[in-house]
Amino acid sequence: MRAVTRMFEKMNHKYNLPEDGDLYRSCEGNPNLTIEDMVKKGEFLENLLFNLLPSIKEQITSLKTALDIQHDLEEQCPIPDVDLTLRILSELDQTLKSVVSSTVALTHASPIPDGKHDHHLKALKLFRCLQLRSEITCLVKVKINMIFESCAKLMTRCVVAPLLADPDEAWRKVFKFKPQVLMIMNFGCDSIDEMIAWSQKSDWAIVKHDWLLAARKLDEILETLTMLSSLAIDPTTHLVPLTFTLVEEPDPVEQTRRRFTVRRVGEVAGTTLLLVKLARIFVRTLLHKIPKKPIFELDTAINSETLKTFCNVFESMSNPLRTLVCCYRHATWGAQTITIYNRDHMFTSVNNLSNILKSTSTLLALRLLPLLDGAELTSAERDFKAWSLTLEQPWDTVINRLLDHVSSFEVEPEQRVEQED
Fold first, then answer.
1. Which among 127, 110, 139 has a CA at the least distance from the CA of 48?
2. Cβ neighbours of residue 334 under 8 Å, at least 6 residues apart?
3. Domain 206-420 classification at class level
4. Tens-digit pLDDT profile for residues 124-152
5. Is residue 5 helix, strand or coil?
6. CB-side exposure of 199: number of CA atoms within 13 Å?
7. What's the distance, CA 299 to chain centroid?
8. The organism sits in which domain of life (predicted)?
């Protein structure tokens, strides 16, 4: 069993891809590549998706049986098959080395496409290859290492348990730790399935997936803000009791101050709700604009630059909103105080949101409309602009109201002194 532990430790942090910097920007791609020029890279991609990555999943699954931990609820001492485990780890070692070398060949070696001129390269577009590389990097540098670390720790505990003064207690800790190890191994296997499934999606299916994810994030933000906005009506539901001794009475002035702060944050959260609702309308309406034709037929219309833009287009909207939620949470817990830092952070986030709907609409009109099938482009542009204006006007109104709310937040007197200093 010690040999197994040493093998896990030896393999931990062994498999690393070279630092990429920003490969998307640094790649000097060839704008004239054809799909025939990419045949060799296509073989690397196919080997990764249909051989190497599935092999990793199979080997991780086999490890569960070899280590005798496949049943997480059984309270019995694992009795690993040492020879089988070492053989599986040796095979996994070779597979991981092949994954690293194949990924490097796919994304670093020539020929490298130009992201502005690779619309005809199907699954070998620059953006898709670099996204796959990012996921594989996370797999071999994080998830696989977590598996090795947890398995090594489990095997060490199995070796040490019978030698301790209270072996029964030591074994109970082993039994408790087993489900965690299995969860980590299952997480790694699931991520491989997701990686392969993503790589087999069409470009538009990838865009749709990311836009649906953006819509779900906004739903989560809306749910949190709804809860926070209720504090404007009843701030006492969120007040953390003041710390005082048995002989002390709570300070009524302090309680009043805290109640006022929580109520004000609730009011601001309620105003922010309106922004999130507008953002949701924006995202969900755009989801309906994704072309309905057989999806793979349309992939040749999108290059990597456009695909990357589409996939990331709503981050500049959702990230500041999530930051605001964090600021509101921080202000309503603990001492229930608005600090200068917190207020300024809110103000910056609202400012970041001020022109984001308009700029996103402009960007999507530039990138999306030329790809749409159906109405004449001039008509589509006119309709899109009219529709986006119906959202931009109330968006600007809410932004101005939020800026007024946040700038009117009062900070504690000592905080003002620090600001003046």
1. 139
2. 240
3. mainly alpha
4. 999 999 999 999 999 999 999 999 999 99
5. helix
6. 24
7. 25
8. Eukaryota
The per-residue b/e assignment along 364-373, b for 16 or more CB within 10 angstroms, e otherwise, is beebbbeeee
Model confidence pLDDT, tens digit, residues 77-122: 888 999 999 999 999 999 999 999 999 999 999 999 999 999 999 9
Query: If you count them, how many residues does the chain have?
Result: 421
CB atoms within 10 A of CB 123: 19
Any idea what the Cα angle at residue 147 is, between residues 164 and 79, rounded to 5°? 45
Spell out the domain ranges in the chain: 2-200, 206-420
Confidence of residue 245 (pLDDT cuts 50, 70, 90): very low
Confidence of residue 58 (pLDDT cuts 50, 70, 90): very high
Percent of the chain scored above 70 by pLDDT? 88
Token code pair at residue 110: 């020539």
Instruction: Tell me the three state secondary structure of residue 130.
Output: helix
Per-residue b or e along 168-177, where b marks 16 or more CB atoms closer than 10 Å to that residue's CB: eebbeebeeb
Categorize the per-residue pLDDT at 242 as very low, low, confident or very high, splitting at 50, 70 and 90.
Answer: very low
For residue 104, which of 129, 139, 141, 122 has the smallest C-alpha distance?
Answer: 129
**Distance, CA of 167 to chain centre:** 42
